[in-house]
Amino acid sequence: TMMQAKKVERLSSMSDSKADDQYRIIQSIAVDSSALVANTSWMMDTENRLLVPSIAEVVDSKEQKSFSNKILMNLGLFDSRLHLVGMHEAVSSQPKEYDLFQQEIPYIPRMMIPRWKRSLYDPKVAALDAVAN
Questions:
Q1: Is 115 exposed, middle or buried (0-12, 13-18, 19+ CB in 10 A)?
Q2: Exposed, middle or buried: residue 52 (CB in 10 Å: 0-12, 13-18, 19+)?
Q3: For 114-118, which contacts have Cβ atoms below 8 Å and span 24 or more sequence positions?
Q4: Which single residue of 35, 88, 90, 110 has CA 20 to 30 Å from 45?
Q5: What span, in angstroms and rounded, lies between the C-alpha atoms of 75 and 113?
């Protein structure tokens, strides 16, 4: 594209030391981004394996529902959709939690989860994966 051509032209006109500095900065950002993605993935995995089941055992389902509703109301429409998809992803491999999810989340939002996953959630995951790789 025209924009990429301009960037290449600008980079080629830079002195070697400036181009080297810019390359090192970009590499540093890429490394930091990869570390952030890896740490975030580890935290989410740990949360799903340890924290979620523990809370499910200790906190009454009525309180969990009330808390989830407060979160959804504060997130706004776009973020609440992402939150519901994330919740679905987290509980889909846990039969007890999945049954509770099916009971507590209204029918229409549950039916929209596959669409929201494709249109909202998967692109965000893909963007994070692209940064990590």
A1: exposed
A2: middle
A3: 116/81, 116/82, 116/84, 116/85, 117/85, 117/88, 117/89
A4: 110
A5: 17
User: 122-132 and 16-46 helices cross at what angle (nearest 10)?
Assistant: 130
How far are the Cα atoms of 56, 60, 88 from residue 94, in angstroms, in the given order? 11, 17, 10
Q: Measure the CA–CA gap between 79 and 131, rounded to whole angstroms.
A: 21
- C-alpha distances (whole Å) from 32 to each of 28, 36, 95 are 6, 6, 36
User: pTM of this prediction?
Assistant: 0.46
Element of type H or E holding 45: helix 16-46
**How far is it, in rounded angstroms, from Cα 78 to Cα 83?**
9
Pick from 97, 99, 89, 76: nearest CA to 121? 89
Q: What is the pLDDT of residues 28-74, one digit of tens each?
A: 877 777 787 788 788 878 877 887 778 778 878 777 777 766 766 66
Predicted confidence band of residue 20 (pLDDT cuts 50, 70, 90): confident
